[in-house]
Amino acid sequence: MAEHYLQRHLTPAVLAxxxxxxxxxxxxxxxxxxxxxxxxxAAFIAARDSFYIASLTEDGAPYIQHRxxxxxxxRLLDAHxxxxxxxxxxRQLLTVGHLSKDPRVAxxxxxxxARRRLKIDGDAISLPAPESAPGSGPDQVERVIHIRVSAxxxxxxxxxxxxxxxxxxxxxxxS
Length: 175
What we know:
175 residues; alpha+beta; seven-stranded antiparallel sheet; 5 helices; 7 strands; 25% helix; 34% strand
């Protein structure tokens, strides 16, 4: 488990609730800086074909959106930076608009068949698409979102229901 994630999320209110419910609170780890994504996280991220991204409106309301594409839709640029191409969609630009006022995001990556999930906190910025970006029309890359990772954590698989994509189901049936 990455220590900075717990340092960020074990707030005084959370610790008070732990004490009220369980009679004690877990210790808050010392974490000197942002959590670095390692080889295990890099492999997990590279294998995903979708993820969820949460952003905040200007008045602090949470907003969550699904992003999908081919395997590797979310790319690891280095141990502290992720990126994904943002394609033309419903033209609402909710996440991009939110990022212009508050860069904080949370990502939620699921591997339903293996019952694993990875949560990532960071700050995101919307950058213009490179001239060489592929696609046309709704498949046109409109921008690239870079996320500076500040913290991550792996979740317990206890209540994850296994689900399979069509390709995963076919592969499972053939094996």
